[in-house]
Design a protein that fits this description.
Elements (H helix, E strand, L loop, with lengths): L1 E5 L3 H13 L3 E5 L2 H10 L4 E5 L1 E2 L2 E2 L4 H7 L4 E6 L4 H10 L3 E4 L7 H14 L12 E6 L4 E4 L2 E5 L2 H11 L8 H8 L8 H16 L6 E6 L3 E6 L4 E6 L1
Parallel strand pairs: 1-2, 1-3, 3-6, 6-7, 8-13
Antiparallel strand pairs: 4-5, 8-9, 9-10, 11-12
Helix pairs in contact: 4-7, 6-8
């Protein structure tokens, strides 16, 4: 499995690359956002392990497009920032994990565990749409699921957040913990029962369609996975 490490600090980049290489991954490294873009154009890694703040810009505005352009790629963010708003946006826009460095770098054991968990969940074959695909679109802001311009279902804001997270992760499950980070706001807290109840409501709405384009599958110990009804179904996520 190939891992691209994007980190501007030379010592930490060398430490990370040596450690991840020892775990059996094929490593490539770079130090800036522009370099990462060039690498992604020529060869897609299985996992992107990147700092959020780089010398030539922030990765944060790029996350949503990265997730859309590389749906099968795992994304792990390393950052010194601790603001919940940034963490929520990162997870909402497509990051799979968000590791905080604080004063000292992230512990290498945590990096190892995160890579192992992500690699275990990932599938290798991304979906490729074809001209004959059955076209659907889900608009995150309006909460509307439509086909050929006709609205089929309407979702609430919380339901839309969960549904968008599942659509952004077409090849591996979204965990309860990831949904916790996305759904909690202010003093509102979510527990496993509330997450399950929310997913149940989304499922029921999908089942109300005569031929729903997708279904939500429980993956034991991992979370929830969105499955298309068939390979002919192509679902576009609109922001």
């Amino acid at each position: 499995m190939k891992v691209l490490i994007v980190e501007s600090d030379l010592d930490w980049r060398n430490t990370l690359s040596a450690h991840v290489g020892e775990l059996g991954y094929e490593i490539s490294v770079c130090s800036a956002l522009g370099q990462a873009r060039d690498i992604l154009k020529s060869r897609q890694p299985d996992i992107l392990l990147s700092d959020i703040g780089l010398p030539d810009g922030s990765l944060l505005p790029e996350l949503a497009s990265l997730r859309q352009n590389f749906p099968s790629m795992g994304i792990i963010i390393l950052t010194a920032a601790t603001r919940s708003e940034e963490r929520v946006r990162c997870m909402s826009d497509g990051a799979d994990y968000y590791l905080v460095k604080l004063v000292k770098p992230v512990k290498l054991e945590e990096v190892s565990a995160t890579l192992t968990a992500l690699a275990r969940r990932m599938k290798t074959a991304p979906h490729q749409s074809s001209p004959q695909s059955e076209k659907w679109a889900f608009n995150r802001r309006s909460g509307r699921l439509s086909s050929n311009g006709s609205v089929a279902l309407q979702f609430t804001d919380k339901e839309s957040t969960a549904l968008a997270a599942l659509l952004q992760s077409p090849n591996y499950p979204v965990s309860h913990a990831q949904l916790f980070d996305l759904l909690r706001s202010g003093g509102e807290e979510y527990d496993a029962h509330r997450i399950d109840a929310l997913i149940y409501r989304v499922r029921q709405k999908l089942r109300s369609l005569e031929e729903a384009p997708m279904q939500i599958r429980n993956i034991y110990g991992e979370g929830f996975l969105m499955l298309r009804r068939s390979s002919a179904v192509d679902i576009v996520l609109e922001s």
